[in-house]
Design a protein that fits this description.
Layout: E1 2-7, H1 10-24, E2 29-34, H2 60-72, E3 80-87, H3 93-106, E4 113-118, H4 123-127, H5 130-136, H6 142-146, H7 156-164, H8 168-174, H9 177-191, H10 203-215
Parallel strand pairs: 1-2, 1-3, 3-4
Amino acid sequence: MHFEILVEDISGKTALDIIVPKIIGNQHTFNVHSYKGIGRIPQGLKSTSDPKKRILLDQLPRLIQGYGKTFAGYHSDYSAVLIIICDLDDRCLSNFRRELLELVDKCNPSPATQFCIAIEEGEAWYLGDLAAVKAAYPSAKDAILNSYMSDSICGTWEKLADAVFLGGSQNLSKLGGQAIGKEKSIWAKRISPYMDADKNQSPSFCYFRTKLRYLSGQ
């Protein structure tokens, strides 16, 4: 099985490049493609934003149709699936998932596609494995980590920052968006190597893990 995985930022790619082999092993192949934000699903099937801006949902109709054509050209004994990973943020999960699935249904040809939604943000997957966070950041604040409820809507990256970043999320926020993005990439590089895919407590991570294993025949 081959997986094409789309994720909304570079920190997500950094983490997935490390995590995915832990889930599917080395007998399957994958590529992770990062974008520069999530954006929103465009009306109809026509993306109106500049593709060079690489905003994931804005470009999704074009991307799905493109992968549909690509996958249709593969030999019958070569299976491939498109995995799209998005943060839920403040959206309604059921409405968001319905919109995504309706988009795939409208595309022709459409590839085999799975959506995995991190609730609330990708940092929820790190916080689903507190042992990994502590291994990467031995001085992380236990009281803050232990107060987190898996996949809760609580300002997830801020919660992680409060536990591991000097001065917490308030100090990191003062440094601006680029600094936040850079710090998220650092978290990905430091925490992901310690993550145990079988012990993660995040329901949205477990959904992602289970889907990959099912699709790869494990």
